[in-house]
Design a protein that fits this description.
The complex is a heterodimer of chains A (112) and B (613).
Chain A: H1 2-21, H2 23-35, H3 42-57, E1 59-61, E2 67-69, H4 70-76, H5 82-107
Antiparallel strand pairs in A: 1-2
Chain B: H1 3-20, E1 23-35, E2 38-39, E3 44-49, E4 54-59, E5 65-72, E6 74-81, E7 88-94, E8 99-105, H2 112-117, H3 121-125, H4 133-143, H5 160-172, H6 179-192, E9 214-220, E10 227-232, E11 238-242, E12 247-251, E13 258-262, E14 290-295, E15 301-305, E16 310-315, E17 320-325, E18 333-338, E19 344-348, E20 353-358, E21 363-368, H7 374-390, H8 398-402, H9 404-407, E22 418-423, E23 430-434, E24 439-443, E25 450-454, E26 464-465, E27 471-475, E28 480-485, E29 490-495, E30 510-512, E31 519-522, E32 528-533, E33 538-543, E34 555-556, E35 562-566, E36 579-585
Parallel strand pairs in B: 1-8
Antiparallel strand pairs in B: 1-2, 1-5, 3-4, 3-6, 4-9, 6-7, 9-36, 10-11, 11-12, 12-13, 14-15, 15-16, 16-17, 18-19, 19-20, 20-21, 22-23, 23-24, 24-25, 26-27, 27-28, 28-29, 30-31, 31-32, 32-33, 34-35, 35-36
Classes of the chains: A mainly alpha (112), B alpha+beta (613).
C-alpha cells in the first residue's frame, strides 16, 4: 500500500513533466478531436483523443520509480516491460478520459 | 582542567595502566630494514599493541635504519612494510623503558596477485577504461566522495547487474549522477574490475624528511563508526564527530583514554530531516549527524548537525550539549568555523546557504548564496520540500524519482554545494568553496555582501587561510592545489604528485600550519598525506601505514601532530576494519632525541619499471 501511495505521489509531482513529454501526442490528440467533429460523436472523439494523448503521457518507471513517458524510454533504448506499459497506458487513458470528461462537463452550458 | 576531570582522568589512567601494564611509557625499537643486503629506504615499521587498538610507525632512513619509540608495553606485533615487498611481522614483548633491536629482511613480491593486492586504490583505478571524460569526471567526483574505490573491499569482480545494484545504492546515498553516467560507470566497473592483477608501476622516491617522522594511530569505535571530522581541543585532546551514531569521541593521546558523549535526543525519526533517504544501513543510525566542529574561546565546541538541521554546543567541562534549531529547510549544515568576534559561521550545503550564528544573542541568520544558474535555483527552492515529501515514505528514496539531477540530466551540476569555509585572518571576511559550482566566495561579515570567483581547477572543497591571508584550496575533482590571493585576486595552481601518470588523487581537505606555513593536504586514493612548502613549491609525501586511509579535516595539535580521522565510509573497508584517530609528527614526537643519523644518501623503496597494463 505504501509503495502504491508513493507511486501516486511521484506521478502527481511529476505530472507537469509528463505532460511536457507528451506534448507531441497531446497536439495530435487535439488535431484528431478537431478534425473528426463531423464524423464522430463527441463522447467517442473524446475517448479516442485521450487514448492518443495517453500514448505520450503514460509513464514507465525505472528502478527508483522515476517516471518517464513510455515512448521516450523506448526511444532511449531503455528496457520497458510490455505488460507494465500496457497497464500504464490503460490506466492513463482512463484517468485522462475521466478528467477531461469532467472538465468538459463543467464547461458545458448546463453548468454555467 | 577541572578537579573533577583531573580525578576522572587519574582514575581512568590508573585503570588503563593496570589493564595494560602501563601506557605512555616508551620502550624503544631499533633496527634495520633491508632486502638482499640493500637498505629499504622509507620502509614503514609499525608496532601494533596486543589489542590492535594502537599503532606507532616510523620510516626507515636512507640506510634502512629506524628508531621507534613505542608508547605501549607488553606483547606486540612489529611489522615492516614497503611497496613491492611482502610485509614482515615479528611478535615480541617489549617492557616499558626497554630497548630491542630488530633486523627485517624483506622479500620482494614476485607473484602478480600479491603485488597487485599490495597496491593502493589509485593503482587499481588505473585499470578502468573510460569511454569519455564526462563519465570519468562524474566517477571521480561522485564515487570517491566518501570512500576509495579500488581498495580490497570495492574492487572485487562483479557482473553488470551487481554493479548496477551497487551504483543505484550509491545514488541513494547522494551520488548525483545522470542516468547515462550511472549506466556508463556501471559498465566500466563491471569490465575493469575483473579480478585480474594490475601491473602498475608507481614512482615512490625516498624523501629524507620521512626519517624524522612518526605516525600514531588510535583505533576508535566499531566497524560502523563514521568519525567525520576531528578537532583538537584547548587541552590538546582530539575530538571526533561520529556522524552516523550521534556521538562525539574524545581521545586523550597521553594515556590513550577514549570517551564518548551522546547528543541529546530530538523529535525526529532516524535520519533526521533526511529520513526519506536510505542512508548507509548500520552506519547512519542517528538523528543528528554531527558533522564538523570548532572550539570557541570559552571552550565550547560548536557542532553542525547535518541531518537534524541544528547547531549544537558542547561544553567539554560540563559535558553538556545545547541544541539550536535552524529550521528544517536549511539542509545539511556542514563545515563550521569561528571568527575573532566569536561568531559561528558554517556552510549549509544542500540548500546553498551560509549560516551565521551569534552565541551571545543566539540569533541565527541564513545567508542565501547566488544560485549559479537555473537548475541550481530549482534545487535551492524545491529540494527542501522534496525532502519533506520524501519523509512521508521513510528510507524509500522518493527524491530520486523526482529530482531534476536525473530527469534534466544535470547530475551534480544541479547543486552548488557550498562546502568548506574559513575566516580570513587579514580582514575577518568569510570565504567559502562551492564544490559543484567550482567557485569560491567572499562574505563581508558586516554587510553580508557576497562576491564569487570561478576557480581554475574543479571541485574546490575544504579551504583554509594561511597566516598571511592567502587562501589555499584543494581541487578534489582534479587532484590539485590552488592558492588564491584575495588582494590581487589571482590564483596559482599546483598538481599533486601522483604515483603514476594515469592515477589520480581526490584531495578532500587541507590545512596550513600556523607556525611553519606548510600546507598539509589529504590524498585519499593512495594512502598518503602531502606536505607542500610554499617557499620552495615542493611536496613531501608521507605514505600512511594503514591501507585505505581516507582523511578529512586536518588539524594541528600543540605537540606538533598533524591529526585527522581515518574516516573511509564504511570503516570496515579500512585495513583492520576500524576507524581511527591519526596523528603524523613530521619532526618526531620528541624533538631530536629519536631522530636517526643524518641522511647522507637517498635510495628508493620502490623499483622503477616502465611497464603498464
Amino acid at each position: 500500500m505504501q509503495t502504491f501511495l508513493k507511486v501516486v505521489t511521484i506521478v502527481v509531482l511529476m505530472a507537469p513533466l509528463l505532460a511536457i513529454y507528451g506534448v507531441p501526442f497531446i497536439v495530435s490528440a487535439k488535431l484528431f478531436h478537431s478534425y473528426t467533429v463531423l464524423w464522430l460523436r463527441d463522447r467517442t472523439r473524446l475517448v479516442f483523443a485521450c487514448g492518443i494523448a495517453s500514448l505520450g503521457v503514460a509513464p514507465a518507471f525505472d528502478a527508483f520509480w522515476a517516471p518517464k513517458s513510455i515512448y521516450l524510454r523506448l526511444f532511449d533504448g531503455d528496457p520497458v516491460n510490455p505488460g507494465s506499459a500496457a497497464l500504464s497506458i490503460a490506466v492513463t487513458w482512463i484517468v485522462l478520459t475521466l478528467t477531461v470528461g469532467a472538465i468538459v462537463r463543467m464547461r458545458s452550458p448546463e453548468h454555467i | 582542567m577541572s578537579h573533577r576531570r583531573v580525578l576522572s582522568r587519574g582514575l581512568s589512567a590508573a585503570a588503563t595502566a593496570l589493564a595494560a601494564l602501563g601506557t605512555a611509557q616508551a620502550g624503544t625499537l631499533h633496527g634495520t630494514v633491508s632486502s638482499g643486503g640493500q637498505p629499504v629506504a622509507g620502509a614503514m615499521v609499525t608496532a601494533i599493541d596486543a589489542s590492535e587498538k594502537r599503532r606507532d610507525t616510523v620510516y626507515a632512513d636512507a640506510q634502512g635504519r629506524f628508531t621507534l619509540s613505542v608508547d605501549f608495553a607488553g606483547a606486540m606485533t612489529v611489522r615492516a612494510r614497503a611497496p613491492y615487498f611482502r610485509d614482515e611481522t615479528r611478535r615480541i614483548s617489549l617492557g616499558a623503558e626497554a630497548s630491542s633491536t630488530l633486523a627485517f629482511s624483506l622479500e620482494r613480491l614476485s607473484v602478480a596477485e600479491e603485488l597487485s593486492a599490495s597496491l593502493p586504490a589509485s593503482a587499481h583505478l588505473s585499470a578502468l577504461a573510460w569511454p569519455n571524460q564526462d563519465s570519468r569526471s562524474a566517477f571521480i567526483s561522485q564515487c570517491n566522495y566518501c570512500h576509495q574505490v579500488g581498495n580490497a573491499l570495492t574492487r572485487g569482480p562483479r557482473d553488470e547487474a551487481a554493479w548496477k545494484t551497487t551504483v543505484g545504492r550509491m545514488e541513494g546515498y547522494f551520488a548525483l549522477l545522470t542516468p547515462s553516467q550511472a549506466k556508463e560507470i556501471t559498465n566500466v566497473l563491471a569490465k575493469g574490475f575483473d579480478g585480474k592483477p594490475v601491473a602498475a608501476v608507481e614512482n615512490r622516491p625516498y624523501q629524507p624528511e620521512l626519517s624524522h617522522a612518526k605516525v600514531k594511530e588510535w583505533v576508535v569505535g566499531d566497524a560502523m563508526s563514521f568519525i567525520h571530522d576531528t578537532d583538537v581541543g584547548q587541552e590538546d585532546d582530539l575530538y571526533g564527530s561520529d556522524e552516523g551514531h550521534d556521538l562525539i569521541w574524545r581521545l586523550d593521546r597521553h594515556d590513550g583514554h577514549i570517551d564518548q558523549f551522546r547528543l541529546p535526543d530530538i523529535d525526529l525519526p532516524e535520519g533526521g530531516v533526511f529520513s526519506g533517504v536510505q542512508l548507509p544501513i548500520g552506519v547512519f543510525t542517528g538523528k543528528h549527524g554531527p558533522h564538523s566542529m570548532a572550539q570557541a574561546k570559552d571552550g565550547r565546541f560548536w557542532i553542525t548537525n547535518a541531518l537534524s538541521s541544528t547547531l549544537a554546543s558542547f561544553d567539554p567541562a560540563t559535558k553538556q550539549f545545547k541544541l539550536y534549531e535552524l529550521g528544517r529547510t536549511h539542509l545539511y549544515p556542514h563545515t563550521v568555523r569561528i571568527d575573532k568576534e566569536g561568531i559561528v559561521w558554517f556552510t549549509i550545503t544542500a540548500s546553498n546557504e551560509v549560516g551565521r550564528f551569534d552565541p551571545k544573542t543566539e540569533q541565527f541568520t541564513a545567508i542565501r548564496l547566488p544560485h549559479n544558474g537555473f537548475w541550481r535555483a530549482v534545487s535551492d527552492y524545491a529540494f527542501p520540500y522534496v525532502l519533506k515529501i520524501a519523509a512521508w515514505f521513510p528510507k524509500q528514496n522518493l527524491q530520486l524519482a523526482v529530482s531534476h539531477h536525473r530527469w534534466a540530466d544535470q547530475g551534480r551540476d544541479a547543486f552548488a554545494f557550498p562546502y568548506g569555509i574559513d575566516v580570513n585572518p587579514s580582514d575577518g571576511s568569510i570565504w567559502y568553496a562551492k564544490l559543484y559550482a567550482h567557485k569560491i566566495g567572499r562574505i563581508d561579515p558586516r554587510t553580508l555582501e557576497i562576491t564569487e570567483f570561478d576557480t581554475p581547477l574543479k571541485g574546490p572543497r575544504r579551504l583554509r587561510f594561511d597566516p598571511e591571508g592567502n587562501l589555499w584550496i584543494p581541487a578534489f575533482d582534479e587532484g590539485g592545489l590552488m592558492k588564491f590571493d584575495p588582494r590581487t585576486r589571482r590564483f596559482e595552481t599546483y598538481k599533486l604528485p601522483l604515483l603514476a601518470h594515469n592515477e589520480y588523487e581526490v584531495p578532500y581537505a587541507l590545512n596550513v600550519n600556523p607556525k611553519t606555513g606548510d600546507v598539509w593536504i589529504t590524498s585519499n586514493m593512495s594512502d598518503r598525506v602531502f606536505r607542500f612548502d610554499p617557499k620552495s613549491k615542493t611536496f613531501v609525501t608521507y605514505a600512511m601505514p594503514t591501507r585505505v586511509t581516507w582523511l578529512r579535516d586536518l588539524v594541528f595539535a600543540k605537540d606538533g601532530g598533524v591529526c585527522s580521522s581515518s574516516s573511509n565510509l564504511p570503516a570496515y573497508g579500512i585495513e583492520g576494519g576500524l576507524a581511527s584517530f591519526v596523528c603524523l609528527y613530521p619532526d618526531g614526537e620528541h624533538e631530536a632525541t629519536d631522530k636517526p643519523a643524518t641522511v647522507t644518501a637517498s635510495a628508493s623503496a620502490a623499483p622503477i619499471r616502465l611497464v603498464k597494463n
